[in-house]
Amino acid sequence: MGVAGDLHDVAVVVGEGFSAFEFSVACEVFGIDRTDDGVPPFRFAVCTEQAGPVGSRQGFSLTAEHRLDRLDDADLVIVTPTELHRGAAGERLRERLHAAVERGATVASFCSAAFTLAHAGLLDGRRATTHYRHAAELARRFPLVEVVPDVLYVEDGPVATSAGTSAGIDLSLHLVRRHHGSAVATAIARRMVVPPHRDGGQAQFVEAPVRACADASLQDALTWAVAHLDEDIDVAGWSRRAAVSPRTFARRFRAETGVTPHRWLLEQRVAAARALLEDGDESVDEVARRCGFGSAAMLRQHFLRLVGTTPTAYRRTYRGARAPVAVRLMPAGA
């Protein structure tokens, strides 16, 4: 892994069906001259495996100046997601990525590009993340990878992976901060009008909807529970609503949802608390009561464990994102 200050040359890999947003994240953070703001200049290159244009998912194409041999000069190699992310990485890309790691460069993936790194074997024995929708598949297909599904990004040695979409910004700023300090990362974030720092351990903002169940009686029990989160719900009473014994209820519940009744109920209560913190003005004590936690301390304990931040900090993040913006209009004739 590189040391502080050695991140100067950045190469981003794009392929057919690349995602414009993730590609633009790399361009915005590393590909724009911000020396006027005290940001050191980065040598930035866009690379493709073959010559010629590559198409994006959004309907436009680009032609890169560089091929994969350009990765040999990079301190940081960023792999962006493509529509073929579930396929094996090409042999040339695999070799270049391994060579980059062996000479001390950092290799990073945005979103589902973690599959490319996994196919290349770079994630074996490492912790990694990806978009929450793909986390289970990544874990299933690559059992040697320790998939962390509910964080924004993970850096494990010379390899770094980010979660879905905007988490690529968080990972990029983290790498800038580690190599060039918080002042440089903050300067870039300010120009991009994004939060300068969200800790990698913060959970992805994932909604927890009530999934449809094949078992109608169980579906009714789930729907009822969501409408009564402020009440004391125990498995014995809950199972009676499904007209089965507690043991049968627990077995069917896990088969349908993949988690225990207790875990599912906790996730629903935390999801409800998140919604109230985002949109409501109730105190944290009132949010705790309405969501069935009983006390603010209990809410904080479970919220911190599942979301990775406190209720107060979570509310502050969302309130900051929705803060009123003053727009100065130019006078007529100016």
UniProtKB/TrEMBL annotation:
<dbReference type="GO" id="GO:0003700">
    <property type="term" value="F:DNA-binding transcription factor activity"/>
</dbReference>
<keyword id="KW-0238">DNA-binding</keyword>
<keyword id="KW-0805">Transcription regulation</keyword>
<dbReference type="Pfam" id="PF01965">
    <property type="entry name" value="DJ-1_PfpI"/>
</dbReference>
<keyword id="KW-0804">Transcription</keyword>
<dbReference type="InterPro" id="IPR029062">
    <property type="entry name" value="Class_I_gatase-like"/>
</dbReference>
<feature type="domain" description="HTH araC/xylS-type">
    <location>
        <begin position="219"/>
        <end position="317"/>
    </location>
</feature>
<dbReference type="GO" id="GO:0043565">
    <property type="term" value="F:sequence-specific DNA binding"/>
</dbReference>
<dbReference type="InterPro" id="IPR002818">
    <property type="entry name" value="DJ-1/PfpI"/>
</dbReference>
<dbReference type="InterPro" id="IPR009057">
    <property type="entry name" value="Homeodomain-like_sf"/>
</dbReference>
<dbReference type="InterPro" id="IPR018060">
    <property type="entry name" value="HTH_AraC"/>
</dbReference>
<dbReference type="Pfam" id="PF12833">
    <property type="entry name" value="HTH_18"/>
</dbReference>
<dbReference type="InterPro" id="IPR018062">
    <property type="entry name" value="HTH_AraC-typ_CS"/>
</dbReference>
<dbReference type="InterPro" id="IPR052158">
    <property type="entry name" value="INH-QAR"/>
</dbReference>
<protein>
    <submittedName>
        <fullName>Transcriptional regulator GlxA family with amidase domain</fullName>
    </submittedName>
</protein>
